[in-house]
Amino acid sequence: MTGNSTTFDPDLCTLSTCPISEANFTYVPSLAGNVFYLSVFAVLLFIQLFLGIRYRTWGFLVGMVCGLVLEVMGYVGRVQLHYNPFPFNPFLEYLVCLTIAPAFLSASIYLCLGRIVVVYGSATSRLKPRAYSILFMSCDFVSLVLQAAGGAITATAPTGDKATMDTGINIMIAGLSMQVASLAVFIALCTDFWNRVRTSPVRVESGDKELVALRAGMRWRAFLFAMAAATITIFIRSIFRVAELSGGFNGALANNQIAFMVLEGAMLVIACTSLTALHPGPCFAGNWDRGNWSFRAQRIAGGDESEELVLKPVGQQHQGEYRSMWG
């Protein structure tokens, strides 16, 4: 990956003293477009705080708030770049914040799938509810660490040290690529689960009457569509960012404002709006905590004195023990 070469201090440049070709972009970021995205994410942040506290969806709340705060910070950097596209610090703020923000948003989505499985019954799924959370949250964590580490290396690279900056950017690309792969597997498993639900009506219609009523509601179905929309748009955005960063700062995608505004900004506005308008708190109708997990000690069958830690869905102890994560 290559950056724009400079033979001067960019912090001393302005649009009236230096050519745009020497800036971080070969375009001036749109003030109206970036202020619009900043405002949307800021409003969604406050709504998510209210809904998360109101419905006590703590894990979902943390992921959404972290992601939205980073989105706001990233667009603050882009607004600064509108007035002066030469300084590196606002560019770095935009680059790092907007790169890692969707990892937190994805984490919130991953938390929802395990609870969706609980609503339909774990027998309908290939994996136990907790397996989805553990598997994809682990992948998301590794992806986030790689992206954050790459951002830190880039941020601390000495001015003009292209090799160190390239190393940081390449690590960020690796983190983004892992995020793309994780989302692809997630989409495949979601599709498989939905097919099993559609082809297993007996399993789905049996069980808790409250959950049967929940599944039949229009709000629940709309929530599932919102989840799908959020997942697909984050997936599209992640593919775009891998291609953009891989092409370098001088690449066509990195300097295409329309592509950025559509494939980065608009995709995440759709994702975050979907996850806010159809927030899991009201959509689960008080059943969100059924998918929570708690550790407890349980004696292993066979009569010995050793113990193991197992996970059980809170509120569904009557459905039996989950001895295996995967089966």
From TrEMBL:
Principal subcellular localisation of the protein: membrane
Pfam families: RTA1
Topological type in the membrane: Multi-pass membrane protein
InterPro entries given in the database record: RTA1 (IPR007568)
Cellular location(s): Membrane
Residue ranges of the TM segments: 31-51, 58-76, 91-113, 134-157, 169-190, 222-240, 260-278
Keywords, alphabetical: Membrane, Transmembrane, Transmembrane helix
Keyword Iron: no
Record-level GO cellular component terms: fungal-type vacuole; plasma membrane
Keyword Phosphoprotein: no
Protein name per Swiss-Prot or TrEMBL: Putative RTA1 domain protein
Organism: Glonium stellatum
